[in-house]
Every structure is written in C-alpha cells, then in structure tokens.
C-alpha cells in the first residue's frame, strides 16, 4: 500500500520458534530516518498497531509494528493469557522477540541504526522495557499498560528516558505494581516518568474490540488521544526527525 507520503509492507522473520509477520511503514523520501519499534498488546498485531506505525511514518519515522504470535491475532482471552503469561515471566523470551524485530528494523536501509526508540502496549511494552534492561542502545522507551519489573539490578542498563502511562483504575496494573515499577526505575537511576490517566482502565488506549476480553479492560477515547500525544511528544524530545 502506498499513500502520497507513506509506504508499507509486511516483513517475515523468525522469533520465539515462530514465523513472525510484522508491519513496516516508511516515510516519503530516500534518506535515513530515526526509527521506532512498536509492540502490540497481548492479543497480538492488529490494524490498531499498523495504523500507529503508519502515523509514525507520516511524522517522518521508519516504524515497525512487531508480531507476537506468528501472524495470529489471539482474540480469545484464555488463549491469550495462556500464551502471554509464560512469556511475561520469561525475560529472555521477551528479549528474543524484541531483538528479532529490532534486527529487522536495523536492516531496513531507511533506518538510522543509531537512532531507534521502542514503544509498546501491554505485552509489547514489556518487551520494549526488556530491551532496555538488556542494555540495547535506544533513544527512548515508551509504554502504556506495561509497568513490569525486571530481574534485580538489570534496569541499571537502561540508557535512555523511560515514559510509562497507566489508567488509574487498571486492575491489572494496580498501585502496588506502579510503585514497584517506579521504585525499580528510581533505584537504577533511570530518567523516568509515569503518567496516570484518571478513570481509565487497562488497555484504555485500544479501541473497543468485538470479542471477549479479560476483566478490567475498557476504552477511554479522550485518554487514548492524550496518551498518543504523550508518546509523540516523547519521540519529539528524545528522537527528533531532524537532528
């Protein structure tokens, strides 16, 4: 698909024992650009993340929305949890999925390999954080609904600002989880920010889906727009298109 400004294509690559199918969006032109790795919620890559990648390309970034489940969107909540809970408990598996996508993004000729940020939602955000804890040279990490803590001491390897957003009423990321996350970031000396969106549930950024979800999920259109603006602002600060 091509618009006047953005070109998109699917990319296949191996990760986690699967053939992943990501969505790459390229801005107009032929020059190298800063790049953004974009991770989806636990259900997997959908049109929501593809459109966000396209929006980032319209802003001038190379953007790769990466896959979690080998080209599948897992709409059944029980199946999603059965796949994501073991993944979220295994930092090395998360890093493997992240590194595989990062390699694809770095190999794209339009990508400036020294100027990459990682943003993600839910499970995809946890993967972005694990790349930071693995010492990957990122310019920024931005997450929504992904206040995961890592193995002790590894957050000290995060080399960039971390921005995190969460809904105040998210039962999956409750205040105790927020506190553990911010304590980890603070102890590691990370430049961190946490934005709590009042009244919002888990996955508040995600348009309402036409299938069952885990309890505690709900769309909040106003905060969804605000969180997107906050992420774009993070990128503008830490990864400007023109440097």
Automatic annotation (TrEMBL):
<dbReference type="InterPro" id="IPR029058">
    <property type="entry name" value="AB_hydrolase_fold"/>
</dbReference>
<dbReference type="InterPro" id="IPR050261">
    <property type="entry name" value="FrsA_esterase"/>
</dbReference>
<keyword id="KW-0378">Hydrolase</keyword>
<feature type="domain" description="Dienelactone hydrolase">
    <location>
        <begin position="22"/>
        <end position="237"/>
    </location>
</feature>
<comment type="similarity">
    <text>Belongs to the AB hydrolase superfamily.</text>
</comment>
<protein>
    <submittedName>
        <fullName>Dienelactone hydrolase</fullName>
    </submittedName>
</protein>
<dbReference type="Pfam" id="PF01738">
    <property type="entry name" value="DLH"/>
</dbReference>
<dbReference type="GO" id="GO:0016787">
    <property type="term" value="F:hydrolase activity"/>
</dbReference>
<dbReference type="InterPro" id="IPR002925">
    <property type="entry name" value="Dienelactn_hydro"/>
</dbReference>
């Amino acid at each position: 698909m091509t618009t006047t400004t953005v070109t998109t294509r699917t990319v296949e690559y191996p990760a986690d024992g699967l053939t992943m199918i990501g969505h790459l969006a390229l801005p107009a032109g032929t020059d190298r650009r800063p790049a953004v790795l974009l991770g989806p919620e636990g259900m997997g890559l959908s049109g929501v993340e593809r459109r966000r990648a396209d929006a980032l390309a319209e802003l001038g970034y190379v953007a790769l929305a990466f896959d979690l489940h080998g080209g599948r969107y897992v709409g059944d909540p029980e199946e999603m949890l059965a796949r994501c809970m073991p993944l979220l408990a295994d930092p090395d598996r998360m890093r493997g999925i992240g590194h595989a996508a990062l390699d694809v993004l770095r190999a794209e000729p339009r990508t400036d390999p020294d100027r990459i940020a990682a943003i993600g939602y839910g499970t995809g955000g946890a993967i972005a954080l694990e790349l930071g804890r693995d010492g990957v040279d990122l310019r920024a990490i931005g997450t929504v609904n992904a206040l995961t803590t890592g193995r002790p001491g590894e957050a000290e390897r995060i080399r960039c600002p971390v921005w995190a957003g969460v809904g105040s009423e998210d039962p999956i990321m409750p205040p105790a989880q927020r506190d553990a996350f911010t304590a980890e970031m603070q102890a590691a000396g990370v430049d961190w920010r946490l934005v709590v969106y009042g009244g919002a549930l888990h996955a508040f950024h995600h348009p309402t889906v036409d299938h069952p979800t885990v309890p505690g999920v709900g769309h909040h259109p106003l905060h969804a727009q605000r969180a997107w603006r906050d992420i774009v602002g993070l990128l503008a600060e830490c990864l400007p298109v023109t440097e």
